[in-house]
Amino acid sequence: MGKDKHLKYKEKHNRSQKINKKMFSVPDIVKGVRALAQSMIETEGLELIHVEFAREPIGWVLRCYIDRHDGSVSIDDCADISRLLSDILDIALEPWLIDIQKNNTQEIPLPEMFLPSYHLEVSSPGDRRPISRKSDFFRFQGNNISVKVYAAINGQKRFKGMLSQANDSEVIIETEKRSLAIPYDNIRIARLES
């Protein structure tokens, strides 16, 4: 009898986890954090460059890259934003998340089991600056970049080359072998290369 109850609980628990994972994915969390953090960071005279939420050896890491228009972000800026963002996220993500999937600002409950504990890191973009906004791709045309894509292109998911062109729907990268068009929605992460 005890085994049956345990199996029923386990089946119910696994089923609810699958439902929650379908409702909220890592990209949804990234979009939600970006939506929550963007205006707060701009109010401080900074810009939000990129948001990452990834599983690493230390656990889940929520990493936000910030900068100033003149590129002079300081350690104090990072520490201040980290404190402010931590407070906002504690309120917003436990147990609420903006419903990005429906493109509205209605808040919906977020089951606690979905959002694992995470480490928050706020830093400057550095030499290998992440590029995630269309405006950044336009800005850094002519620079060398590395790109990881979601769906493989010709059996490959990683590319390095010169960002030769950016338009409203895709970027063109000149690799050693060929010119490659990558749609924005297939770009997982792009970074400047030295």
From TrEMBL:
Gene3D superfamilies named in the record: Ribosome maturation factor RimP, C-terminal domain (2.30.30.180), RimP-like superfamily, N-terminal (3.30.300.70)
Family membership noted in the UniProt record: Belongs to the RimP family.
Keyword Mitochondrion: no
Taxonomic source organism: Candidatus Magnetoglobus multicellularis str. Araruama
One BP annotation, GO: translation
Compartment annotation: Cytoplasm
Primary location recorded for the protein, binned into one broad class: cytoplasm
Name of the protein in its database record: Ribosome maturation factor RimP
Record-annotated Ribosome maturation factor RimP C-terminal domain positions: 132-193
Ribosome maturation factor RimP N-terminal domain boundaries: 37-126
Function description: Required for maturation of 30S ribosomal subunits.
Domain of life of the native organism: Bacteria
Keywords: Cytoplasm, Ribosome biogenesis
GO cellular component, one term: cytosol
